[in-house]
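Quarterly update from the structural biology core.
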Amino acid sequence: MIDFLSKGGILVGPIFLCSVLALAIFLERLIRFARLRIGGNGLVKKIARHVKNGEDQQAYELAGTSNTPMGRILANAMEVKDQDRETLETVLVHATDEEVRGLLHYLQALATIGNIAPLLGLLGTVLGMIKAFMVIQQMGGKVNAAVLAGGIWEAMLTTALGLAVALPTIVAHSYLVARVDKYEAQLQDGTVSFIKALGGRS
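Predicted structure, tokenized:
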């Protein structure tokens, strides 16, 4: 297999590196999401109940010790809960965006790998074809069909490898983005529930 891949030229190495990086990012995000506890409406209701009962310190401690994205968002909100509603909503939106950015970590790199892998493959093919036509020129046009075919398939090998890396990478990226969108929706629902639970602050 190594001997077979080595015939693809110098760009096989970068394409292989792209595949390793893509797999590492995908597995890291999968593990991260598997361990993630968002902290939904149950946490929101508990914190809001403490606030309504005037137990601000308990509410803040509950949010801070929950070790969840929702808890961190509400901990930020607790710091401005006595200010106007616009300030409260601004803090909630900013904190939510910050948590979502953390969830999106490395996903842009995954998308980039999905985009450049086929381009690397295409570049490898172009370089291989250039070499094949150089051989034709050097032999004065008297080229054995087997020699020409061998040069062409070696050139096409990098395109196949690039696509083989890009396709699963794009699918993995789409899957992870969908997971993040789901988590973001849960966080937004939680912040809306928190504002409602405070009784429509003005």
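The helical segments are 2-6, 12-34, 41-52, 56-65, 69-78, 85-103, 107-138, 145-197.
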